[in-house]
Amino acid sequence: MLRIVEVAIVTTAVAGLLGCSSPTDATSTSAAVNLTANPNPASAGPSSGVFYILQGDTNTPDQTLEYPFQASFDVAVVETGGESVDITSITLKVQQATGGIITPPTTGQVEHYQFVSSAGGKTVPAGGQVNVGFQVWYALPNLRRECVATIGISFVDRKGTPDDTSDDIGFGKSLDVQIQ
Predict the structure, then answer these.
(1) Nearest to 94 by CA among 136, 37, 41
(2) Are 44 and 69 in contact (CB under 8 A)?
(3) Is the separation of the CB atoms in 137 and 112 below 8 Å?
(4) Cα separation of 2 and 21, whole Å?
(5) Does residue 81 belong to any structural domain of this protein?
(6) Are 75 and 131 in contact (CB under 8 A)?
(7) Strands 69-79 and 170-179
(8) What digits encode the pLDDT tens for the residues 138-151?
């Protein structure tokens, strides 16, 4: 009988611990964000006037090369959970692709790219939207124009007052944009 009581106490304690959540748990935020690209897929065209440096070695000098392709698209950031959020960072990565499937380059080959972005604001109001424009220049080892641009956007929800950041929760979203 004593053994059954011990098991019941331990089980209750474990269940109680599993039910606890930390205030910094990203799933406890009511903020929710959707990302949508326009257009997706985006069209790539010839680039002109933007260059990158291909690093040489002891036997080969550095080369300055013009990016062969460029593409432009917008990403709509829409808050759907009822909490205002601030955009804290934006990243973009270009990877060569075939039919929308990422095909990493073989050993030693590198995808070269750069981008500029322009955001319509830092704060996405509750139920509101902010647009972020992207212009991307790139050169791929397979010499083709098709690629996938992965955009990552990090946020922090803004509960309470702007001066009190103790209950703010950070989270991120990503979106793949196919470029053809």
Answers:
(1) 136
(2) yes
(3) no
(4) 31
(5) yes
(6) yes
(7) unpaired
(8) 999 999 999 999 99
CATH number, position 121: 2.60.40
Ranking 10-24, 62-76, 81-95 by mean pLDDT, the lowest is 10-24
Whether the full predicted model's pTM is greater than 0.90, yes or no, is no
Task: Answer yes or no: is pLDDT of 53 > 60.
Answer: yes
pLDDT tens digits for 114-124?
999 999 999 99
Smallest CA-to-CA distance from 80 within 36, 118, 121 is with 36
What's 105's DSSP letter? Answer: P
Cα separation values, 143 from 40, 56, 64, 98, 110, Å: 21, 19, 17, 12, 11
Beta-carbon neighbour count of residue 121 at 10 Å? 14
Q: Domain span at residue 108?
A: 31-179
Is 160 part of a structural domain of the chain?
A: yes
